[in-house]
Amino acid sequence: MGYGTLENGDWLMVGMSIFSKDRSVELRMQDDGKLAIYYNNRCAWQSTDQQISNAKGAIMQGDGNFCIYDKNDKATWHTNTAAPTGDNKTFVSVQDDGNLVLYKNGGATPIWSSKSNK
What we know:
The structure is a single chain. The chain has 118 residues and is an all-beta fold. It has a single domain, classed as Agglutinin, subunit A. The protein has strands at residues 5-7, 11-13, 17-19, 26-29, 35-39, 42-46, 55-60, 66-70, 75-78, 91-94, 100-104, 109-113. The strands form three sheets. It has a four-stranded antiparallel sheet with strand order 1-10-11-12, with no helix packed on it. It is globular. The relative contact order is 0.22. The model has no long low-confidence stretch (mean pLDDT 92).
């Protein structure tokens, strides 16, 4: 897959970041358990207002759901995009326009967005 993407089974652990293709947009898995999008030196979006002190990271699951888990393997946030039979061609992408988008069918169909356009 391309730059700034997480495919099925890929983790973004606490303290890690991925960037859009032009590197202007950062998706960061923060120590407080929130996924956050940064551009222009500001936080443009966060997954939740709640802090999770024992966050593990975020995973693009094989069922099509993008989730944050704590260290006890409990899901603390998700995109609610799981397919009943799974979709092994889903991925989440940090885009140059400031959006985090989850695609299915190998990129043909967007199914979730952070709505954090620049």
